């Protein structure tokens, strides 16, 4: 099957589009820019969703749901917000055969409708903090789309919180960024760089935006999660006030933060290879596939019985599938499951039954090097342990790849060379206009001002002015 897959080195973008479809993750919708998420892709999203949801609830957040339709006047209350989203809005002007008195915006994000509700719910300092998350779909009318990475409609979670003090809101903003970082590292096996967005890249209406930036296998950056300190901007726009302990009215301090189905694309592009997907075991919809092998009809029942027994034993510990499809060769099945990125394959045939062994193959190490013989009596211990080994190995491989493509630069010639291959790291003191010119000249943007700063001072890579902060630059999706 892999011979029909474009190699990453030949055309990474084409490889990505092919693998998303060939691995049954998603397909194109009849509506331009939208996608149909197929069961295998949706199960992967469910794994992402569930792992994040556990973390949200562990930090005190609860889930709720807010309307899909938002009055246009709500967006207009926060001028910077509406200006930032205007080009991407989908607007409903008619309903039930009649023109609406006020146009309704199909949710691009929910700060405005949630701000309206918080103004009703929050009256006293005793009502704070409010820590709410919602899992929903949003619509942003993107001109250039790609499955999972940038679609007109996508799924996500958006957290919205309100606090009594600036300090609490800023602490929340950083806490949720750390939650995203923890998820990416421990579950998605994706190394990320947490940091602050530049002024031109921050969320419309935010005081400050923070991000986790990941490097894909073509060297481009993917913004994988964001957390925004909104200050009192939306509180003032929507009159979110409370009586403090001195019985004086104060505006609340708010935050918002989100991760979307773009994370599915991040997993694909961080780990996949020319054979297909390489899924981290913690997120893989199927962690282990058992493939029975026989050549003679008389061997079939014994092999299937042994394979079903292996599946039953492993099924108590891991997510396992038994491939009983008829009329397909073992080699075809191997390629099929490799395309789907299943982390571990267990092969069992007549000789294995006789020797009371199984052959175990790792997806992350192709060929004979990734195979090992495991006694049947040890599979309950060895297979789960192997999955953790694979998880760690995939993460380390991604770390090594990323770190090998980040270059510290001091001259623009080196800068241009670095961003053609990965990330450039350099001192920065430019403003919005400087960054716009830099992007026009090089196609690169400030991905973030990383939390991990070297200290000291230097010269801005672009303006030549004195600088005290180092930025990560790259071309991005």
Task: Please give a structural write-up.
The chain has 477 residues and is an alpha+beta fold. It folds into 3 domains: 2-271, BirA Bifunctional Protein, domain 2; 288-387, Rossmann fold (3-Layer(aba) Sandwich); 406-474, C-terminal domain of ProRS (Translation Initiation Factor IF3, 2-Layer Sandwich). 35% of the residues lie in helices and 28% in strands. The chain has 14 helices and 25 strands. The chain has helices at 12-22, 39-58, 72-76, 79-85, 111-121, 166-186, 233-238, 262-271, 300-315, 330-339, 350-355, 379-403, 412-419, 432-442, and strands at 26-28, 35-37, 62-63, 69-71, 90-95, 98-106, 130-139, 153-163, 192-196, 208-215, 221-231, 241-243, 249-251, 253-260, 288-292, 320-322, 344-348, 357-362, 371-375, 406-408, 423-428, 445-450, 458-459, 466-467, 469-474. The strands form 6 sheets. Strands 3-7-8-14-11-10-9-22-25-21-20 form an 11-stranded mixed sheet, sandwiched between helices. Strands 16-15-17-18-19 form a 5-stranded mixed sheet, sandwiched between helices. A 3-stranded antiparallel sheet has the order 4-6-5. A hairpin with an 8-residue loop joins strand 18 and strand 19. Helix 2 (39-58) crosses helix 6. 42% of the residues are buried. The mean pLDDT is 95.
């Amino acid at each position: 099957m892999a011979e029909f897959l474009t190699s990453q080195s030949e055309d990474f973008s084409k490889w990505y589009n092919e693998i998303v479809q060939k691995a049954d993750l998603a397909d194109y919708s009849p509506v331009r820019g939208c996608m149909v998420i197929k069961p295998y892709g949706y199960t992967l999203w469910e794994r992402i969703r569930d792992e994040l949801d556990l973390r949200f609830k562990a930090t005190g957040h609860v889930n709720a749901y807010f309307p899909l339709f938002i009055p246009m006047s709500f967006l207009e209350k926060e001028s910077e917000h509406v200006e930032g989203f205007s080009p991407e809005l989908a607007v409903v002007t008619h309903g039930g055969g009649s023109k609406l008195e006020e146009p309704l915006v199909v949710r691009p994000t929910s700060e405005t409708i949630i701000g309206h509700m918080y103004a009703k719910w929050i009256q006293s300092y005793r009502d704070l903090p409010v820590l709410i998350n919602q899992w929903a779909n949003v619509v942003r009318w993107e001109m250039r789309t790609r499955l999972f990475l940038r679609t007109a409609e996508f799924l996500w979670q958006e957290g919205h919180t309100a606090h009594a003090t600036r300090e609490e809101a800023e602490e929340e903003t950083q806490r949720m960024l750390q939650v995203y970082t923890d998820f990416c590292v421990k579950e998605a096996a994706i190394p990320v760089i947490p940091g602050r967005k530049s002024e031109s890249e921050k969320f419309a209406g935010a005081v400050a935006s923070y991000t986790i930036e990941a490097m894909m296998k073509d060297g481009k950056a993917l913004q994988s999660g964001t957390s925004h300190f909104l200050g009192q901007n939306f509180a003032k726009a929507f009159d979110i006030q409370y009586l403090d302990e001195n019985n004086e009215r104060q505006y609340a301090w708010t935050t918002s933060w989100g991760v979307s189905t773009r994370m599915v694309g991040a997993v694909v592009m961080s780990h996949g290879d020319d054979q297909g997907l390489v899924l981290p075991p913690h997120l893989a919809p199927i962690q282990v596939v058992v493939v029975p092998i026989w050549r003679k009809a008389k061997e079939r029942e014994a092999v299937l019985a042994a394979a079903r027994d292996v599946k039953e034993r492993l099924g108590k510990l891991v997510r396992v599938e038994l491939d009983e499809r008829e009329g397909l060769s073992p080699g075809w099945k191997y390629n099929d499951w490799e395309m789907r990125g299943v982390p571990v394959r267990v092969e069992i045939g007549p000789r294995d039954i006789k020797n009371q062994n199984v052959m175990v193959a790792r997806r992350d190490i192709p060929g004979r090097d990734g195979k090992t013989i495991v006694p049947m009596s040890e599979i309950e211990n060895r297979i789960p342990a192997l999955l953790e080994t694979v998880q760690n190995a995939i993460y380390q491989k991604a770390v090594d790849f990323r770190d090998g493509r980040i270059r510290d630069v001091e001259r623009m010639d080196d800068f241009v060379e670095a961003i053609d291959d990965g990330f450039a790291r350099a001192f920065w003191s430019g403003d919005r206009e400087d960054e716009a010119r830099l992007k026009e000249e090089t196609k690169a943007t400030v991905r973030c001002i990383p939390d991990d700063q070297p200290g000291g001072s230097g010269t801005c890579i672009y303006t030549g002015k004195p600088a005290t902060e180092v930025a990560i630059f790259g071309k991005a999706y």
